[in-house]
Amino acid sequence: MATRPIGEADRARVAAAIRAAEAKTDGEIYCVVARQSDGYFFPAACMAMIGILLASLAVAFVSEYWWVSIRLPHFIMKQLAAAVAVLALLWLVPALRIHLVPWQMRHRAAHDNALRQFLGRNVHRTAARTGVLIFVSLAEHYAEIIADVGIDSRVDPDLWEDTVNDLTAHARQDRLAEGFVRAVETVGAVLAVHFPVSPGDANELDDHLIEI
Questions:
Q1: Which Pfam families does this entry report, sorted A to Z (predicted)?
Q2: Which one, 25, 181, 202, 212, has least CB within 10 Å?
């Protein structure tokens, strides 16, 4: 996904898109981008330990086949040394961890983070229950749109999926801000159809892009 830092101009573009979209609806749009949704130390350590165990079993079988004698204390000490070395490497180089974690676990962590943002940022507490979260987690190559009950039941899930696919496509091209702008415009158009702006509509959520 995107690697170029989000600059002030990009933040301004996304904020302007949110304000423009919300000018036509009573709904609220909230955008969050996370560099990474989990530290992954323990999942990565678990996968590494499984790898060391499997490698040890392979060495044991090969040694037995070739009649190579390995003293058990030496064998165990080498296993422990390998485990300590791997754990130290994972601790000192956090960027390695995510590469040891299955993609299903990465996406679960990103989804859980999206839910935390939806609830923690009070997107679910707008007056008409029409808040929509647009969420991207870069390290996991994950994006999601979460709509509150006031709007979600009225929208075809395929529309959200298409919007997410377009957002991730832009992120892969290092055009994250453009992807957010397009997603905001799409969500805003949907909200405007079902919840057009009414007199005295109050802005209930921040209009800028949140980075975590």
A1: TPM_phosphatase
A2: 202
